[in-house]
Specification:
Elements lengths: L1 E3 L4 H22 L10 E4 L6 E2 L12 E4 L14 E2 L5 E6 L7 H18 L6 E8 L2 E8 L3 E3 L3 E2 L3 H12 L12 E8 L4 E10 L2 E10 L12 E8 L14 E9 L5 H17 L14 H13 L9 E9 L62 E8 L4 E2 L6 H20 L2 E2 L8 E4 L2 E4 L6 E2 L21 H5 L33 H19 L6 H8 L6 H10 L1 H8 L8 H21 L10 H17 L28 H6 L35 H4 L1
Parallel strand pairs: 1-6, 3-5, 6-7
Antiparallel strand pairs: 2-4, 7-8, 8-9, 8-10, 11-12, 12-13, 13-14, 14-15, 15-17, 16-17, 18-20, 19-22, 20-21
Organism: Trametes coccinea (strain BRFM310)
Protein name: Fungal-type protein kinase domain-containing protein
Pfam family, one: Pkinase_fungal
Length: 705
């Protein structure tokens, strides 16, 4: 139980006095002998006057804590006089009666920040609890990767309810308090750095993998979502025997939260590979619509790859995977309330009572967005789904580099060529990837691999409408059409003459929903190469272009990307800001890719199901990429690599910003992995918040700050 007190002397003294009494109550509860229950937490005030965090940037101000009796911190961790945040089980926030009303909003940001730090700085944590006291009312909060929930408030003078709530926490198991039994924190002496370092051991059924280096750390404002972490790991014997197995090779482990009813990447990959093997046994004839405009050499290559199974080399090899912890389901009778922290999202019509203020209540997404950036609020009639999430561990054999980690343009283009071939194979079996990004195209021993198939789905216009086919992917790499929910193709309006001026308008024909289609995946290839060229080649003055095209929070972001794709002059003008000594084929190639994609959208019009309209584009883009690769041999165009991660106790990236306010206001960093920015990735099927209580004052202070 972490206690956040007011900064002024009066409320702080009141807070200490109040929690000293709480500590007495809690410690008395701990001493109660129960035959079937043992306490897991206890209150300690003197040793918790401050707390240190294993990750920099923590803002805990502790005057008391309810900590685990058996600490999850490694025994060999550095000796400190303060309590590690990993030992703190529940966050406790207080607004005293003599504090200003706006402190209610401040309290809620504190409890959110505390939960965020607990979940994001400790891989053992799968959910977190908090308690908020506002004046003489208490409420319990639950934070998970699927949603956050708030209980109904009750009066502190209700002794029975108070003791019941505290007892439920004290006698909960360590796992019920949010610590994952399939993850163990360890401390290991690192000879190079001459210090102990906190690492993790993941259990995948009967196999154990120890983390070595963090490749991608999750550290942003969103609590809900996939919360992906990527580690280099080595297989070990057990939690207690952490020596690498004989001949064990380094591999990659991805820790990700998926929808509870979602298929894992292995399950999706197996479905795709089954289709590919069937296609290899029964290769389609030359006049098949999927080979419209495909040259004989490419067709032969595809046939051989599918026949001998070598197409699998274009994807990652999954060594092991495991379905782990599941978030709690929403409570029966819950009422969604979307305004705890100020961002309007899906408002459930049933939850809005007559005469109530729509800006009061709980939030669905713990993130602050300026008012001018809120361009669209879904109508009240759209229901919001609150689905559980399940933790998934996946181990891959290949230790690869993402495109934005490469230091040579030639290697980037080669990886894009292989990814293009992988996308064409997906096209042949009628699957779309839906999340092509610089982090999902990998380079391994000089060749490219297409990864992260969790968003992939079968292309079918008859199912998966807008409501069940949500926008996915990384905005700066997403197709213009799918991001804008419109079409690049615009039908020319007929000229209005005197003959039809008074004629009644004919009813408009129904249109086919613009689903994510094959060309949307191909357009992402174009945006990735454009992003690399503008942001990773040193010695260029492209700041304005980068801001317009690759900062999704800028107000003109969508329009700038649309014009860059559809207007040749706009594209050429922005490409003119590149370094003058670069091979001309680079800017000419990007202009050519733009032209291929633009013409593809217009020639298809709205016939999204016309398979023959997609097939020529693969060959046209391949020809351009091969020409670029031939003109930029390795060593010709060097790239700026992102700085190495700051390795700390949690073996990961240190937070890019130090405080909550800075994190809320920080722009996207185009030189680092795009998924590191808070606003870039939209989680699949995210269910962000629900509330089980009365409406309360909204947190608008954060937006103003």
């Amino acid at each position: 139980m972490t206690t956040h007190a007011q900064e002024s002397a009066g409320p702080n003294k009141n807070g200490r006095a109040i929690f000293r009494r709480f500590g007495t109550i809690i410690n008395d509860i701990v001493k109660v002998p129960l035959s079937n229950l043992s306490p897991s937490c206890r209150y300690e005030e003197e040793s918790c006057t401050a707390a240190y965090s294993e990750a920099s940037g923590s803002q805990h101000h502790v005057v008391g804590s309810l900590r685990l009796i058996t600490s999850p911190s490694p025994n060999a961790a550095p000796k400190r006089s303060t309590a590690a945040t990993s030992d703190i089980a529940v966050s406790f926030i207080l607004k005293c009666e003599d504090g200003p009303n706006d402190d209610i909003n401040d309290n809620r940001w504190k409890t959110f920040y505390s939960a965020s730090r607990a979940l994001n700085s400790n891989c053992r944590r799968k959910h977190a609890y908090s308690i908020i006291i506002e004046d003489n009312h208490l409420s319990l909060w639950y934070f998970s990767r699927s949603h956050l929930a708030r209980s109904q408030e009750f009066d502190l003078m209700d002794v029975r309810a108070l003791v019941h709530a505290l007892s439920a926490l004290v006698f909960s198991t360590v796992e019920d308090l949010g610590y994952d039994a399939n993850v163990r924190r360890i401390s290991e002496w690192i000879e190079d750095s001459k210090e102990d370092q906190t690492r993790y051991v993941y259990r995948l059924e009967k196999r154990f993998f120890k983390t070595l280096t963090c490749r991608s750390e999750y550290d942003n404002l969103y609590i809900t979502g996939r919360a992906t972490r990527v580690w280099e790991v080595v297989e070990v014997t057990s939690f207690d025997d952490i020596a690498p197995l004989p001949h064990a090779q380094r591999m990659i482990l991805r820790d990700v939260w998926l929808g509870h009813d979602s298929e894992t990447e292995r399950e999706i990959q197996e479905k795709i590979f089954e289709r590919c093997d069937e296609l290899g046994r029964n290769f389609p004839p030359e006049n098949d619509a999927r080979f419209n405009g495909v040259d004989n050499a490419t067709r032969s290559l595809l046939r051989e790859r599918l026949k001998d199974g070598s197409y699998k080399n274009l994807f990652l090899t999954i060594e092991a995977d495991y379905r782990g912890a599941v978030s709690k389901p929403p409570a029966d009778g819950f009422a969604p309330a979307p305004y705890i922290y100020d961002q309007p999202v899906y408002l459930n019509q049933e939850a809005k009572q007559p005469g109530s203020d729509p800006h009061r209540g709980s939030t669905s997404r713990a993130n602050s967005i300026p008012d001018e950036a809120i361009l669209y609020q879904p109508p009240p009639s759209v229901p919001r789904e609150y689905k559980q999430r399940q933790r998934n561990f996946v181990v891959y054999r290949e230790v690869c580099c993402a495109l934005h980690e490469l230091d040579d343009l030639y290697d980037v283009v080669q990886a894009l060529l292989d990814a293009l071939l992988a996308l064409q194979i997906l096209f042949l079996v009628s699957w779309v990837h839906r999340d092509v990004s610089s982090g999902n195209i990998l380079s391994f021993q000089g060749r490219g691999k297409l990864s992260d198939l969790e968003y992939a789905k079968e292309f079918n216009l008859l199912v998966g409408g807008r409501s069940s086919d949500p926008k996915t992917g990384t905005p700066i790499f997403m197709s213009v059409e799918f991001q804008s929910e419109g079409t690049v193709y615009k039908k020319m309006a007929k000229r209005n003459t005197w003959k039809n001026t008074n004629r009644a308008n004919a009813p408009s024909s129904s249109t086919v929903p613009n689903h994510h289609n094959f060309q949307h995946d191909l357009e992402s290839i174009f945006w990735i190469l454009t992003w690399i060229v503008f942001t990773h080649i040193p010695g260029q003055n492209c700041t304005n272009v980068i801001w317009e095209l690759f900062h999704s929070r800028s107000l003109g972001f969508a329009a700038a990307r649309l014009h860059f794709l559809t207007d040749e002059d706009v594209c050429a003008k922005k490409l003119a800001s590149l370094r003058k000594d670069l091979p001309p084929v680079l800017s000419n190639g990007l202009l050519g890719m733009r032209d291929v994609l633009h013409m593809g959208y217009h020639s298809r019009e709205k016939s999204f199901g016309d398979i023959s309209s997609y097939s020529p584009i693969y060959g046209e883009l391949r020809e351009i990429l091969e020409a670029i690769a031939a003109s930029v041999p390795r060593g010709t165009v060097k790239l700026v690599r992102p700085p190495p991660p700051k390795v700390g106790a949690r073996s990961g990236y240190a937070p890019r910003t130090e405080t909550m306010d800075k994190k809320k206001q920080a722009p996207e960093d185009t030189m680092l992995a795009p998924h590191k920015a808070a606003s870039l990735k939209r989680a699949r099927g995210a269910s962000d918040a629900d509330n089980v209580g009365d409406e309360s004052r909204a947190g608008k202070r954060a937006a103003r700050e």
